[in-house]
Each structure stands twice: as C-alpha cells, then as structure tokens.
Amino acid sequence: MRLLIVEDEKRLAVSLAKGLTAEGFAVDVVHDGLSGLHLAGDRAYDLVVLDIMLPGMNGYRVCAALRAAGNDVPILMLTAKDGEYDEAEGLDTGADDYLTKPFSYVVLVARVKALLRRRASPGASPVLRVGGLAVDTSARRVFRGEDEVALTAKEFAVLEQLAVRAGQVVGKPEILEHVWDFAYDGDPNIIEVYISALRRKLGATTIQTVRGAGYRLVTP
User: Fold this and answer.
1) Closest to 27 measured CA to CA, from 134, 178, 218
2) Please, what is the Cα angle at 160 between 158 and 165, to 5 degrees?
C-alpha cells in the first residue's frame, strides 16, 4: 500500500517514512501543503498522514480541498496543537482521525492500520486465499497450508500486490508504483530479485512469469 506523509518537520517526516517503510508500505514524503495537495490529487494513495501547521497551505485547507474534489482517501491529521476545538476543526474538514504531537510511533502505526482496515469493504476478510496460500494483509503474515512462511517486509508487499489480483498478470510498473516510493530511480529489475526469493519460499511454480507483461500468482 502507498502512503503519503505531508510534514514540514523533516526529521520527523524521515523517521516516520523509515518506520512505515519497514512495516511494508511504500511511502512518499513532501514538506508543504501545496505539494501535498498536488501529489494526493495526482496519485492514488491508500492513506495520507497530514500535518496541520504547514507552509504554503495548512492541513485544514489541504484536507478540505481534497474532500471538495471528491477524494475520499483516508486522512490522519497530525498537529502540535491540543484541545477539542482543534480536533473538531480537523474532523469537520473531512479528516478521518487526529493525533496530537508528541505521539507514540506504535500508536501512529496502529491508527494507520485501523484506518486502512476501515476503508476495506464492510465484512471483507483481510485474508487473501490462493489455493493453499493464505495472505493475511492485516497481520502481514503468510501461511502455506498450516505452516507460516517468514517473509521480509518488501517480499510481503510484492506478494500482496500479486495476491490481490491472483490469476491476473501484474506488470513491473504496477508493482514498483505500490511497493517502492516515487523517488526510487534504481533498476526496475530489482523486482526479479524479490520474485525469485518468493519462489524459493513459496514454491517454484507459485508465481508465473508472463514474458513482456509481468507476473501472475497461481494456485500452488
């Protein structure tokens, strides 16, 4: 899943990005409101972490502009302010949740995951099943039959992109877009390294290569 962090405190933004990347998310970071509004409107994000006190355009206005444009991306607002009126203003502009600084990183991750679960279809299971594979997108765990398969955060993120479209061909550009951030300018063939690792752990025939098109997760 792809997240956007709009936070002008650069050390905090970098710290949050590193932590959320380690959780398996692709994370983009900008440091002012106008850039945040542009990116959030131009790219498909699963969630936006939005500071309120931003240069150029504050978080309230960014949130209100996104909602006015029909963008329903979940928004978790961050602020150094405290008080019920600040929280009410944030929620009134269309934010989904509100977190006051200083906050626990563990709490932030829990809020992010809760918002992502809430966004899913009511009653939808977080577990994707493909034959004997069970991919738990909430707990970020994978089972083959009764046995758990240990995956790195990036391996899980690649597998998740294939599992949500099991049986369909998923191209390299789509995997790169959702698993790596927009600033990644390395070799796109890095995906092949993770596909090879997944085949070693899940079975050589689990992921098919469709020449010139991408990869397909099939029933083991």
Assistant:
1) 178
2) 110
Full-model pTM: 0.62
Helix (H, G, I), strand (E, B) or coil at 199: helix
**Each residue of 9-49: pLDDT tens digit?**
999 999 999 999 988 888 999 999 999 999 999 888 999 99
Question: 145, exposed or middle or buried, with CB in 10 Å at 0-12, 13-18, 19+?
Answer: exposed
Instruction: Tell me the C-alpha to C-alpha distance, in Å, between residue 106 and each of 53, 56, 110, 146, 181.
Output: 22, 30, 6, 29, 22
Minimal CA–CA distance to 168: which of 211, 121, 210, 120? 210
Residue 180 sits at φ, ψ, to 5 deg, of -110, 155
CA distance 6 to 39: 10
Place of tokens 């997944």: 198
Distance between CA 166 and CA 163 in Å, rounded?
Answer: 5
